[in-house]
Specification:
226 residues; alpha+beta; four-stranded antiparallel β-sheet; 31% helix
Length: 226
Amino acid sequence: MGDKTFAEFKSELVLNLANREGIDAYTGGWVNTAYLDLCTKTKFWSLQIPKKFLFYELQATDNANTIDGTAYIATPLDCVSIYAIWDSTSDVKLKRINLRQYINYVGREDVDSEDTPARYVRSGGRIYLYPTPDTVYAMRTYYRKRPAVLTGTDKTIIGAEWDEVILDLATIKGMMKLRMYDDYKIWKIEWIESVSAKMGMYDSEKDDTRDILKPDIAYIGYGRNT
């Protein structure tokens, strides 16, 4: 969880924008937009967010039971993207398909064709299953969630190390709206460098999966015959 409250974000944003008057009605929107963008966007100007980079705090699960003869379950309201769907009843992972494939399947409305769901596709606020369930199955959806809008004394759900990143991104958005173009260009470059460095920090968690302490092959036999 972050350290700064929403109110603190707004106050510091005003300072970053040289105490410009008449912007109080907009600072909250700039902060929340920056927060949402950081948690959901995959590219910021020249910076492409690596696919392997994840905010673990945004990983979520949702449990829903199917209904006999109903071809879908609800998509979680805060869902940005689905990682996987697990049928807990059958102890199997469902295969993702595209909407065109699903539409081409026959027997979706035929009670004689109902069976254990093996595939899924997300469309709007629903997750369609095929075959259509023939009974109740416990489905667990693993997904990336959208953070809630900040108000009052709320804090972000991601780590405090990202507070300044959010604040600076909100500042950049404000500078663009206020036509502070020279400052905007400088802050944008510094922001990209800062975010790149922080994302690299997260790679350290994967160090135990690599042979980072393995000796150089050129020195394995060094000194044996001396």
